[in-house]
Amino acid sequence: MTIDTDWIAGYADGVLEPERRRLVDAALARDPALALALRRERDMTARLAAAFPPVEEPLPPALAGLLAGDAAAPAIMAGRRRPARLWLGPIAAAAVLLAVAGGGWTALRVIDGLEERVARIETAEQIRLATQTAIDARRAEVLEQAPNGVETPWRDGATAGRVRPVSTFIDASGRFCREFTEAVEGPDGSRTGGGIACRVGQHDWRLWWPDNGGPAGGQAL
């Protein structure tokens, strides 16, 4: 009888059904090559477990079908072998390749956990970028219209703030610039500060200080 490589993976992870485990035990006793394959499978599982934190989660339905001996298991397994996201880097990509080659349940659980963590990070980054875009747009509206010394409140979804232009001048390049103070409250907390922004297009104000060192020279208005 030929022992399937997926049986070896399940045997190494301790999830193989008792009847199949007995068959593998018998095959291991008489087949050195199969014993070597088992050692390699266990080594791969150990390396993955050492490289990534354990993931405590219910067994995914597709893997549960595999462990139950589902006839559609090969097709399900192929569907679970998803490529790593590019920015995870070479280590995560290598982990995915090891999971595909070895077919271990533990390896696939590790990859599932990594993908969930990446999704949470990406969601947080999208929220951060959307919040910053709202802050920049609302600040530009105030700098475009409000006179010096007048604080203007604004709100955009879950983010709110106040902007007060302090002074207005023309820099050495002929651009209108304004010094301002602001306070912002958003999903990532509250902050206060200020800076200098210059008008670079219609309703388009670029923050020059503290980000870009400030405009050179200028004439107060």
Walk me through what this model shows.
The protein is α+β, with helices and mostly antiparallel strands and 221 residues long. The protein folds into two domains: 5-120, no CATH class; 146-220, no CATH class. 50% of the residues lie in helices and 22% in strands. It has seven helices and six strands. Strands 1, 2, 3, 4, 5 and 6 form a six-stranded antiparallel β-sheet that branches. Strand 3 (176-186) and strand 4 form a beta hairpin. Helix 2 (18-30) crosses helix 3 and helix 4 (61-67) runs antiparallel to helix 5 (73-80). It is rod-shaped, with a radius of gyration of 30 Å. Residues 70-91 have low confidence and may be disordered.
Largest sheet: 6 strands, antiparallel
User: Which regions are unreliable across 5 or more consecutive residues at pLDDT < 50?
Assistant: 70-91
Order of helices and strands: HHHHHHHEEEEEE
Q: Work out the helicity level.
A: 40-55%
Q: What count of helical segments does DSSP give?
A: 7
Please give the domain count. 2
How far the N terminus sits from the C terminus, by CA atoms, comes to 91 Å
Question: What fraction strand?
Answer: 15-25%
Protein name: Surface antigen
Keywords: Membrane, Transmembrane, Transmembrane helix
InterPro entries: Anti_sigma_zinc_sf
Organism: Inquilinus ginsengisoli
